[in-house]
Amino acid sequence: MATEIIATEGDAMFAWLIWILPFVAALIIPAVAKVSKLSTGRVAIGFAAMSAISAAMLFPMALEGHEIHSQVDWISAIGLKAGVLADPLSIIMANVVGWISFLIICYSTGYMKGDKDIVRFWFWMMFFIGSMQLIVLSDNLLQLFFGWEGVGLASYALIAFWYRDKAKHHVGKEGRTVLGIMEYYSPTHSGMKAFIMTKVGDVMMLAGMFLIFAFAGTFGFKELLADTAWAVNMSAEGLLVPAVVLLFGGAIGKSAQFPLNEWLLEAMTGPTAVSALIHAATMVKAGVFLVARLGPLVFALGAAGILVDQFFEIIAWVGAFTALLLATQAMVNPEIKKVLAYSTGSQIGYMMMALGIAGLSEQFVDGYTAGFYHMISHAMFKASLFMAAGSLLHVVGSRFMTDMGGLRKKMRKTYAFMWAAGLGLMGAPFITTGFWSKDAIFAAVYESGNEWALPIFIIAVLTAAITAFYTTRMMGLVFFGKESKHIEKMESEGHHIHDAPRSMWIPYGILAVLTIGIGVIGFSAEGGIHELFTEYLDESFGIQTPHIDVEISGSLGFLSGLNPIAVGASLVAFAVGFGLGYIFYIGRWVDPVKFINSNIFFYALHKVILNRWYLNAMIYWGFVIAPLWAARAIWRYFEKTAIDTGMNTGLERSVRFGAKVVQGTQTGVAQSYLFVFGAGLLFVVLILLI
Amino acid sequence: MIELTSTPIIILAILGGVGVALPVISIAMKERGTVASYGIVTLIALFASIGYVLYQLALDHVAPAAIFSQDVLADDAFGSLFAIAMLIVAIFTTVGSFSYMKNKANPSVYFSLILLSTIGMVLVAYATDLVMLFVAWELMSIPTYILVGFLKKDPISNEAAIKYFLFGALASAIIIYGISLAYGITGSTNIGEVIQGFMVLDANLIPIGLLAVGMFIAGFGFKMGLVPFHMWLPDAYEGAPPTIAALLAAGTKKAGFAAALRVIVMGAVALSLDWTLALGIIAVMTMTVGNIAAIMQKNLARMLAYSSIGHAGYILIGLSIAPFSTIGIQGSLFHILNHAVMKGAAFIAVAGIVTALAVTHIEKIKGLGRRMPITALGLVISLLALAGVPPLNGFWSKLMLFASAIDAGTVVWWGPWLAVAGVLNSALSLAYYGWIIRKMYFEGETEKRIKEPRAIIAVMIFSIIFMVTIGVYPEPIIQFTEFATPAINVAFTP
């Protein structure tokens, strides 16, 4: 089966429609709102569904390994083209984004019911989805960057959606400070923080993009691959690795990787549907997608003899470090959405780790498939967990897990679905997608044969154990034990605590069931993607996968082909994490507070982790407060003196003077006008004669 | 012979027929017709014309930028581009007049004059004969003299009309003088033959040829609002009804450029003059004077008038470096089309403000964002587009103009300086555009929303869509301008 470029009109049209439809919806929703505010939700659902269906129409083609590359002239005067590139990578991604977004939009109709700014909400949600699909389907970096910035803008608007900054929409605990920095953020502050922090990455990405453009003269992915002379030239100048690392800087910002990870926590001030969208389908996945888009390209350059290893080493290490860093913090946070947010950052770290390791091993496709597969499985269970958490917030009216507890009898559906999705996150063996994808990452890391493989493998396994622990802790705190005072108070006030309405639990139910359902056949699903990508990488990038026929004999027949060490590590990590979590939070045999306070080492560790490793505070001191001081000093000693009195006044006076002179000529007297006209004619003839 | 179904002839028939018929019908009906009824008839005629232009283009019945033709009129893409720009402006003016002309006298004559003037503009763009050009020029100008003074009880309007007429008459005289000189030394009035004649001119006669070109620059420069032929312009735009100011700024001004492109650029190339520097100097003077004078204005219409002088300077960049860069004229054409919509929309917004609130002073439009949100939004978008803020259409045409100027730097040393002047001026222009935006959105607190005239809303929405769409996806227009750009070098290889 050969990969061929077939672009029938109809298929190409679907590829365009995937990202155009959400934008169309965003444009018409305000107009529809004038007629009927209630139907805006239906319009959003309809367009999200159409976009997702368009993506699904292309799915068979992806499975056959075909691709569509359709281009139109955009601004031919400067040689720019716009286009869509629908290859297996982007089609699968577009389906994941499309369908999960669709479910989240359905969920939002219940979650956002009655909000008086609902039109603004729908507008930005659809804009968000459209921008993300634009990133996924772009065939060049510049167009991708438009989507990239669109995603950034939409996230800003949605994180700060409740811009009236009511106390219940804040995150963090009021009054808590770390190194003198408040750890209590309002929605508007958080929106700004997310926007600025991701912008740091965007600027790097822009620099990387134009650096490449300066050498290659094109932004197109296909064109960059077709003629690699630019890479040779860049490499000779020592600029290739810096340029691609700058591009990766964009991914660090968007995907909340270390050191630009801190915005992700405060992003929890947005409505939970937004959090689900950011974490499962749109924003943070954009960075992973960018790496998945660029990885094979860079690896192909490496195969051609250009040194690019550092690029993949940086990706792998950033991923590994972030995975551990954020997982530890998820263990101690009391807010349910924040736990999930930390968890997302940590899981994205896994994906980066896998994509980075891919470039460092012989078998590029192993790590590549593992990272991408983990992204798909994470998208499902994390969207489900967030929506479920949203319905908890909706019902309980508090973001703190200490205000929940004992809910398993009262919210049976949510309880069941959260377990299903939570097991996916923990990597419960053999029946969840999370297990297979994580296992694939372990195997890819372990088998890569790189010098860094072992330390990264250890970090990955440790993180898996921590993940299992904090997920169990979350489940234990929310659903087990005694009801909290908050709930007792609510019940005594006559609130009946029960599952959320159908429009809300069905979407997360579907995803939770899928987590298990696909998990059961998870290994063969991974095999399918592996096969597909092997061919895709070979046909599109010329990355050959050496066929290794080393049968690793497993004790169980159906597990043949699995790496026993990876599986073993997976199982141990799950057992340890789940076991500890059970002891502390489900069985409640040991009181975690007493346990921590029993020992100065645990106490200190807990404090460091709870204070976010002091990273957030350091960022505020270094990049917010110090620059403010500097700005004040510059203002006082330089601006007030040199600029204000010197340049500013001078410039203003000279413009004012110029304006006076010009106006002075405009006397209103027709004779003088005519005189100027005559003089002008004379002037023109004179300069023509010279 | 030019075919009877060619674009200019059909437009002449449609607009001329309706334009002449309107006052007659009005008298026959004993002047009982409403403003709206005359307006709708006018609109139908204009839409039919623009439809015909587009239909001819779509069917490829239009020649690509035929500068020379044996006929008096050429049915080419160059003329069609101008025709589209001018018809859009005429439609804006007509729609804007629905509310503006309410309760004012003689609506039938008013609309009839707009139609006649539009014919003149369109024919100027299609004309390939100097006499035809002059007749069209006068057909365009004379109705506008009357329109500027249409508020006959208003002394400012009268003064504006008189000043405009004085200059118009002078300019016409100068143009006709230029034509007679050109005819005298070449023996023809066909533009193609005149230019061929210039190329083989006897050395003794060259100064006379120069004089003729100088006359054309001055004569057409009057309509284009080039410094120093601009003095009448702020007074006339300020005094005229704002809808007519839109017609002048966005429409007749473009006719000046059409004529200049056909005659001045070609004629000067034929005389192989060092005329480029002269146009370059005028371009810089024009944009600088326009923008600096605009900064201190307190009257919206007057501010926009000066801003349109500034824009004439940008457009002239493309003309002045035409021989050195392929995208110079293309950029000019693109900017002409954009400016027609941007400036047209801005003036129609002012017309809406005048209709609803009867103010044009900048201090009086505080809080307009709350009072007339759609008009204010349209005004903001058009101002930003005028300033060249991406992703709006003005950005791309300015980019092309400035890029062409930098391009020309490989041939002439002063090329890049035109781009520098253009960028500095664009920055300067943001000072007064930003001031308007600030007054509308950041000052005033207590205003309540008032009813905006529907016709104004329609124009605003169309312009916003146009400016944003072209800003995001300029390719179709760029291709069209490429098709409409006369190839200078090709023209002179007989």
Care to describe what's here?
The complex is a heterodimer of chains A (about 700) and B (about 500). With about 700 residues, chain A is mostly helical. Among the domains of chain A are: about 370-545 and about 565-590, no CATH class; about 605-660. Chain A has helices at about 10-35, 40-65, 90-110, 120-135, 140-160, 185-215, 220-225, 230-235, 240-255, 265, 270-280, 285-305, 310-330, 335-360, 365-395, 410-425, 435-445, 455-480, 485-490, 500-520, 520-540, 565-585, 590-595, 600-610, 615-665, 670-690, and strands at about 70-75, 80-85, 170-180, 180-185. A two-stranded antiparallel ribbon of chain A has the order 1-2. In chain A, strands 3-4 form a two-stranded antiparallel sheet. The termini of chain A are far apart. Chain B has a domain at about 275-485. Chain B contains 20 helices and no strands. Chain B has helices at about 5-30, 35-60, 75-100, 105-125, 130-150, 155-185, 190-200, 205-225, 230-240, 240-270, 275-295, 300-320, 325-355, 370, 375-385, 395-410, 415-440, 455-470, 475-485, 490. Residues about 490-494 of chain B have low confidence and may be disordered. The interface between A and B is large, with 34 and 47 residues. Chain B: One of its GO terms (cellular component) is membrane. Chain B: This is NADH-quinone oxidoreductase subunit N. Chain B: Its main location: membrane. Chain B: Keywords: Membrane, Transmembrane, Transmembrane helix. Chain B: It is found in: Membrane.
**Could you give the distance between the termini of chain A?**
73 Å
Q: Count of helices of chain A?
A: 26
User: What is the helix/strand order of chain A?
Assistant: HHEEHHHEEHHHHHHHHHHHHHHHHHHHHH
Chain-averaged pLDDT of chain B: 87
Overall, the morphology of chain B is: globular
Specify the biggest β-sheet of chain A: 2 strands, antiparallel
